[in-house]
Hints:
- The complex is a heterodimer of chains A (140) and B (123).
- By secondary structure, chain A is an alpha+beta fold.
- Chain A is 37% helix and 29% strand.
- Chain B has 4 helices and 5 strands.
Amino acid sequence: MPKPRNRSELTIPSRTEALARVRRFVRRKALRMGFTEEAVDQIVIAVDEACSNIIRHAYGGDPAQQIQIVVDTYPDRLEITLSDQGRRFDPSTYREPDPQKLARSGQRGGLGLLLMRRLMDEIQYDYRDEFNIVRLIKYL
Amino acid sequence: MSQFSVSFRQHNGVDILELRGELDAHTASELEAAFERLLQEGRCRVVINCAELSYISSAGLGVFMAYVEEMRSRGGDIKFCHMSPKIYNIFDLLGFPLLYDILPTETEAIARFSSHAQTSQSE
């Protein structure tokens, strides 16, 4: 696999206070790569959702944990890789919810992963050395 | 840190909540507190003015999802206005414009409550 043109890293505590910092970090990188404003918004929300899921589900709200965010830029795409050491996520167990059914039932959860899938071009999951690794990819 | 605030106004028996800033998993609890306050006071006709709302994630959407049915079961609703294309796109991506009333202006959103009341009375 070719090396990225550029790599940036950010490590945050698993606290929702840190989400705004993540959004600013990812927005800067995506804008610099030449994505449209609409595509930048989509990338930012997807990364926010990924971090929020880690904080809430993988770490169960434990604020003492960490999330590493690596942004790699390639000539044709942006890849954002998030790593955590929380509860293992098995993507094969995921069933895409019907957002309208969720809304009608008054449930508030379940939309984060759906949004990520609709906003990004590719999502890859891996579990290596006790790390959950999720990679979000958007093509220029 | 995310900047977010909710301010309240009333007009013709409708509560108007003006949202400012970024509504995410960190700030969603402020919106939740606002809805709890309205329910405790028995107020269920709500217009969300999104003119100054610059960001929303699923955590913010989840608050509306959690409260809209409660408001409707009490004869009210949550309606939205002044939604920027950026915010509307997220609602649209999930098919929410079919479930929620989204109006261009606050006046139209408030008027929708009286038109619904008249329709109910004549039925």
